[in-house]
């Protein structure tokens, strides 16, 4: 959501090491970062602040527990975007979320399951709501590297009844 | 009595006298030691030996420059463990000469206790720490119930809840260890840090 950029960032943690000289805060232990509707969870997070005041966060996950992010989308109705990956980098200046290795992003409208995108690397621009999926965990795309999948839900009303009628016969 | 026996009686009498005198002196020495120990374990022993009102003492570092000043309303020095209790202490650490040295820092509290021959200062009761901003570092303000400061190696720590503000970010947690020389702060417990959006003024410390 666009309004998120004017909201304070609040980070809950088990413990934090603040290095005031380099202005780096390293949070560990079940870290929850919220900024307006943006909600990110991870085992460890490193947040740095640029002199102009922009925040850059890198969330890394512990084995098995991926770092997750969830943000409301601007459009009508209750639209959300949810994503998870082993490492998530969030750039506060251009509001870009980068998901590295085993990334998965899901769009949700109300209770209906939405589109799902999976790949090695996904970058999601929350301002323009623009995805890009690359097939190597580092973010560049090499032929023959990993594969991505995208599931697009049938949209519109006509699809739904067709599914239900066969059950009637 | 024949001459020989009379002589023996007088001799044994003087011998007896001398033995008595020897025992007497021994008894006197015993008495002296005994009262010495008693004086040692005297119940007045841990009474303060000096009390200073509205005092301020400056502690120098090895280089001979003043490194911090401790002042307060009343200092009571206890000889037993060479510690001193202070009412309304103010600890001011001074900025060093080297460019990297952090700006001066002020600590206020209700009570203080200096021990371990002045290498540890424990502040209790509404402890407030302020450090002004400098070119290299943001202003810092800290509020807690009790804080242990080691002025010589410039670190402070507490196990109690802490409210801390660094520049415009505010944080609170339980348990803290701060090293002022490298300006690193570790905050523990289920804590929370709030970074305001760009350009917002620093919210007051809650």
Describe, in plain words, how this protein is organized in 3D.
The complex is a heterodimer of chains A (169) and B (206). Chain A has 169 residues and is mostly beta strands. In chain A, 6% of the residues lie in helices and 56% in strands. Chain A has one helix and twelve strands. Chain A is globular, with a radius of gyration of 18 Å. Chain B is α+β, with helices and mostly antiparallel strands and 206 residues long. Chain B folds into two domains: 1-45; 50-194, lipopolysaccharide transport protein A fold, CATH 2.60.450. Chain B is built from one helix and twelve strands. The longest helix of chain B is centred in the first third of the chain and has 38 residues, at 3-40. The relative contact order of chain B is 0.09. The chains are: A mainly beta (169), B alpha+beta (206).
Beta-strand segment tally of chain B: 12
Helix content of chain A: under 10%
Q: Work out the strand percent of chain A.
A: over 45%
As for the CATH topology of the largest domain in chain B, it is lipopolysaccharide transport protein A fold
Measured between the Cα atoms of the first and last residue of chain A, the distance is: 45 Å
Low-confidence stretches of chain A: 161-169
Q: Roughly what is the average pLDDT of chain B, rounded to an integer?
A: 83
Structural class of chain A: mainly beta
Strand order of the largest sheet of chain B: 2-3-6-7-5-4
- The second-level CATH architecture of the largest domain in chain B is Sandwich
Please report the first level of CATH classification, the CATH class of the largest domain in chain B: Mainly Beta
State the assembly state of the protein chains: heterodimer
Order of helices and strands of chain A: EEEEEEEEEEEEH
Q: How would the global form of chain B be characterised? A: rod-shaped
Helix count, DSSP H or I runs of 4 or more residues of chain B: 1
Main sheet: strand order of chain A = 4-5-8-9-7-6
Tally of discrete structural domains of chain B: 2
Q: Any idea what the shape of chain A is?
A: globular
């Amino acid at each position: 959501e666009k309004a998120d950029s004017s909201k304070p960032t609040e980070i809950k943690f088990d413990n934090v090491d603040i290095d005031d000289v380099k202005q780096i805060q390293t949070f560990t232990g079940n870290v929850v970062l919220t900024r307006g509707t943006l909600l990110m969870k991870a085992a460890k997070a490193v947040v740095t602040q640029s002199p102009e005041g922009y925040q850059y966060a890198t969330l890394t996950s512990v084995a098995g527990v991926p770092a997750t992010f969830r943000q409301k989308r601007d459009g009508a109705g209750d639209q959300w975007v949810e994503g998870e990956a082993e490492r998530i980098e969030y750039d506060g200046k251009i509001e870009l979320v980068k998901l590295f290795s085993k990334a998965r992003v899901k769009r949700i409208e109300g209770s209906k399951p939405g589109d799902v995108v999976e790949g090695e690397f996904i970058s999601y621009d929350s301002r323009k709501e623009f995805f890009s999926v690359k097939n190597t965990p580092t973010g560049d795309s090499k032929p023959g590297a990993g594969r991505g999948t995208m599931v697009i839900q049938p949209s519109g009303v006509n699809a739904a009844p067709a599914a239900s009628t066969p059950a009637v016969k | 009595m024949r001459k020989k026996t009379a002589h023996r009686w007088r001799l044994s009498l003087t011998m007896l006298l001398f033995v008595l005198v020897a025992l007497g002196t021994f008894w006197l020495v015993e008495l002296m030691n005994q009262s010495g120990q008693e004086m040692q374990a005297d119940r007045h022993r841990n009474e303060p030996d000096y009390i200073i009102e509205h005092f301020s003492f400056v502690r120098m570092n090895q280089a001979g420059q003043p490194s911090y000043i401790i002042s307060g309303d009343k200092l009571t020095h206890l000889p037993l463990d060479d510690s001193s209790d202070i009412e309304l202490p103010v600890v001011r650490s001074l900025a060093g000469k080297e460019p990297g040295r952090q700006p001066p820092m002020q600590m206020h509290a209700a009570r203080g206790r200096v021990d371990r021959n002045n290498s540890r200062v424990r502040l209790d009761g509404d402890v407030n720490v302020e450090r002004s901003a400098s070119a290299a570092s943001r202003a810092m303000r800290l509020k807690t119930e009790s804080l242990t400061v080691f002025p010589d190696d410039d670190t402070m720590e507490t196990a109690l809840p802490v409210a801390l503000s660094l520049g415009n970010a505010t944080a609170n947690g339980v348990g803290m260890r701060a090293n002022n020389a490298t300006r690193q702060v570790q905050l523990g417990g289920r804590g929370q840090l709030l970074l305001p959006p760009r350009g917002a003024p620093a919210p007051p410390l809650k």
